[in-house]
Amino acid sequence: MEGTVIRSGSAGSEEDGTEVESFQFGEEIQGLMSVPPESGSSFTALLGLPATQAMELLHSPESDEAPATLSGEARVDQCQKPYLPSFNCSPSFPSNAALVERAARFSIFAGGSGEDSPDTNSMPSNSSRVKNEPMDTDSNPTTPPPLISDPTVGNRNLKSAKRKEREKKVKGPSKKNKNVASESSEDAEKLPYVHVRARRGQATDSHSLAERARREKINARMKLLQELVPGCNRISGTALVLDEIINHVQSLQRQVEFLSMRLAAVNPRIDFNLDSLLAAESGSLMDSSMFTPLVWPEVQVNGNRQQYQQQWQYDAYNQPVWGREEDNHNFITPENSLLSYDSSANSGTSSLRVNLLKMEL
Amino acid sequence: MGAPTSLKQKFLKKWIMGLQICGSSKKEMGILERKKAIKLAADVAMASTRTATTCWSRALIANASKCDENKMLVEHIMGSSQSERLSVKSACMGCNKRIRSKKILGRSKSISRVKKIAPQKILANSIAKRLVKKRTQVLKSLVPGGESMDEFSLIEETLDYILSLRTQVSVMRRLANATEHSNRK
C-alpha cells in the first residue's frame, strides 16, 4: 500500500509535467498562486506543505535483507502505522536513543511520530529512500501479532549497525530532497518550521540549511520556468536559463508592440466591426480548435500572415510559435498554407470565408 | 486549448470594451497615438484578468493609472470596485521596505559566516553569482513591478507574466488577422 501511495505521488508530479506541455498551465498557475497547494502529489506542493502534515518517513532498509515474509509483514505493519494513535510512540523513545543519537550525527531530525495521514507518504516523490523508523518504534508496544514485534526488535539492532554504512554509501552521491519531519508526537502539529536533512559533508548550522532550502525552492520554480519557455529544457545552469527567459519575455513584449502597431495601421479610427466579429465570440475561441471546417479559413489567415509579416523582423520566431499552436487541429506547414491561399485567392466563396473567419474569432 | 480559452475570452471582452472607449473619443489620433491606446487597452485588460493575485498586474495597472488621461480608461476596464481595491498602494510600499530590510539582514548574517571552499571554487562561484545577479536585474526590469520582489516571487511572477503575454499575443494576432482580412475583402 505504501509503495502504491508513493507511486501515485510520483505519477501525480509527472502528470503535472505533461499538463505544462499542453498549455493548460495558465489556470493551474492561477490556482497555484491564489490557493495554497493542497494536493500532496504535485511537486510544487512539496514546497508549500504546512508542518501539520509534515512527517518524515523512514523506509526500513532492512526490508531488503530480511526474509521475504518478514519484510512483507513489516511493510504491511508500517502501512498500518499511520492510523495508530500518536501517544504510543513515547514509551518507545528511550529504546531508540542509540539510533536517534547516531541519526542526529547525520541529520537534524529526531524520531518522528507515528501518526499522520497517508498523504504524506506520497510526498517525497523524488527521494528514493523513505524510511519508516518511527513506525518501527510504534510497532513494539502496539502491534498485536507478537511475531512481528520480536523481529523488529532484532531488526533495529541490525538496522543501527547497517544503516550507518548504507547511509554513507547512498547519502554521498544521492541528492536528498527536503523531507519534512516532526520532532515528536506532541509538537508535530504546532511546529512552524520546515526540517531539512543535511547532506553528508555539509554544514549543519541553521544558516546554510535555510539557504539550501531556499535554493531548492528556487530551483524547483526554475524547472517550471524551463518547461514553459521553449527550448530551455536542454540548458543547464541558471544564468543561461535566465538568458533564455529574458529573451522570451522580451520577444513577447515586442510582439505585443508590433501587433498593436498593426492594428493601429489597419483602422484609421479605432473602431472594429464588432457586431460581426462578436457575433460568435463566446463560442468562437473554443470552436476554432474543434471545428474541422475552420481548417480552411485558417489557411487563409496563415497565407495572409505570410505576406504581411515579411516586413517584420520577428517572423522567424513567430512562425514556429504559430505553427505549434495551430498544429493541434490542423497540420499545415507555412508552405502549404501559402500555396493553398494562392490557389483559392480567386475563388468566389468570399462570403463563406468571411463568415468562418468571424467565427474563428 | 481548453482551459485558457475562458481567459482569452475575458481578455478579448475587456480589450474590446476599452477600445470602444478609445474609439468613441472625437479627437483625431495619429497612428502612434492609436497604437499606444491599443497597447494600453490590451495591457490593462490582461492585467485585470489577473487582478489581486499577482504583483505584476497590480504594478502594471498602477503605472497605467499614473497619467490622468489613461485613468479613465483603466477604471472603465477594471470596473470601479476593482480599481478601488487596487488603489491601496501602501501595501506595495510596505512590501518594498520589508524586502529591503530582509536583504540587509541576510547580508549582515552572511558576512559573519565563514565557509571553507577551495580558492578556485570561490572564484567560479563568485563569477556565476555575478552573472546570475545581472540576469535577475534585467528580468526585474522587464517584469512590471519586478524591482520590489525577492528572487523567489520574481520567478513566480515571471511564470504568470509569460503566460498572460502569450494569450495576449495570440488574441491580438487573431484580431489583427481578422480585421485585415475583412478589410481586404
UniProtKB/TrEMBL annotation, chain A:
* Compartments, record wording: Nucleus
Annotated region (Disordered), positions in chain: 1-23, 110-192
A single Gene Ontology CC term? nucleus
Keyword Isomerase assigned: no
Q: Taking every annotated instance into account, which residue ranges of this chain make up the domain BHLH? A: 202-252
Q: Know the name of this protein? A: BHLH domain-containing protein
- Record GO terms (molecular function): DNA-binding transcription factor activity; protein dimerization activity
Bias (Polar residues) ranges: 119-129
Superkingdom assignment:
Eukaryota
Indicate, by first and last residue, each region the UniProt record lists as having compositional bias (Basic residues): 159-178
Keyword tags? Nucleus, Transcription, Transcription regulation
Originating organism: Liquidambar formosana (Formosan gum)
TrEMBL record, chain B:
Major subcellular location class: nucleus
**Where located?**
Nucleus
Domain of life (superkingdom): Eukaryota
Protein name in the entry? IBH1-like N-terminal domain-containing protein
Cite the InterPro entries for this sequence: HLH_DNA-bd_sf, IBH1-like, IBH1_N
- Keywords of the record: Nucleus, Transcription, Transcription regulation
Read off the lineage from the record. Eukaryota, Viridiplantae, Streptophyta, Embryophyta, Tracheophyta
Coiled-coil annotation reads none
- Presence of the UniProt keyword DNA repair in the record: no
Recall the GO molecular function terms of this protein's record.
Answer: protein dimerization activity
Query: Is the keyword Cell division in the record?
Result: no
Quick one: a GO biological-process term for this protein? regulation of DNA-templated transcription
Residues in domain IBH1-like N-terminal?
5-66
- Species name: Liquidambar formosana (Formosan gum)
Q: Extract one GO cellular component term from the record.
A: nucleus
